[in-house]
Every structure is written in structure tokens, then in C-alpha cells.
Write a structure and sequence with these properties.
alpha/beta, Rossmann fold, 7-stranded mixed β-sheet, globular
Length: 198
Amino acid sequence: MKILNLYAGIGGNRKLWGDEHQITAVELKPEIAAVYQQLYPNDTVIVADAHQYLIDHYKEFDFIWTSPPCPTHSRLRTALKKKVYPDMTLYQEIIFLQKWYHGDWVVENVIPYYKPLIEPTANVERHFIWSNKPVNDKTFQRSYKGAVTDQSITTLSAAYGIKLPDDTKNKRKLLRNAVLPEMGLYVFNQLAEEGLLK
């Protein structure tokens, strides 16, 4: 199966998908893309704007996972003094995929501080999932919970099961921004078990 993994970061969502698929990861920042490539050497990694890449290449893939920028949607945003407009890339991509894409797709983002403009398909581990297919709600009971309060690189790395290369900059931020691998696998398997993924 040809998979497109947008806003790939360090590939938390992709970590447990295995290597039997042809995965293309798109990440804007070259230094983060380099870390992803080290972690997943069999994937094709492209340094580009994921939003533009989606519209230019969506027809080339069987399954699309996209995790658009979340900081402007986060409930933590309400605690900050600097107010910003929400980044509407999230809703643009949901609408685009609903209308134009004929494969299976998932859009992942944080639970926002406002009522979602488009009703999510599921609530999975403190995140909303939008998909063209059913996904069940789920919360994971594991050591990840400690990472929420501790936030040290060691705790986060253990919780996510991702050991970043020693020369990686901003390890804590990269790990905090990663999708929980079990969540990525759970959503992926929800679609696969229904025979929806090819």
C-alpha cells in the first residue's frame, strides 16, 4: 500500500506501522526530516510544505494520514496571553479530503479549545480523529500518562519508544509534538480490520 504521511515530524504515528508499505513522509523542516529518515530509513522523506504536497500529489496514494499544525487549536492556547487566529489548514484539509480523495484518510489534531467546526469521527488519546471511515474512541492506559506531567526527555523517549539520535536538537519539543505510536497503530488497525485499507 502507498501511504502518505503529512507533517511527519519524527514519525510517532508511523512508528508501529511496520515496513511492508511504501511510505512517503513530508516534513517542512530539514533537520526534523533528517531525524525521521534516520528512524525510518526505508521511507521516502520529502522536505516540503505538506499542505501544498497534499493538493499536488493526493491521487498517488492509497492512504493518507495528515497531522496539521495544532498549537493554535490547543486548549493550552487559552492560557497564553498572546492571542492568535486558529490555523485553518486543519479544516481545509478535512474538507479537501472529503470532497476529492477516494482512498482512506485520517486527519489527526488536538482536542481544541472551541467546539470543532467539523464533527470529529473519534476521540483517541486526547486527540480528535477525522476520517472517511469509522474509528472508535479509545484511551490508552500506559506509562505515557507520566510523560504528561514529567515531560523530561528520558520519560518522553521511554513513553513513545523512540530513541532520537544523540545529535538531535530540541529533543523534548520533538517528542512532545509526536503522535503516540500506539494511537497511530490503533487508528491504522481500525481501518485495516474493517478491510478498508488495501
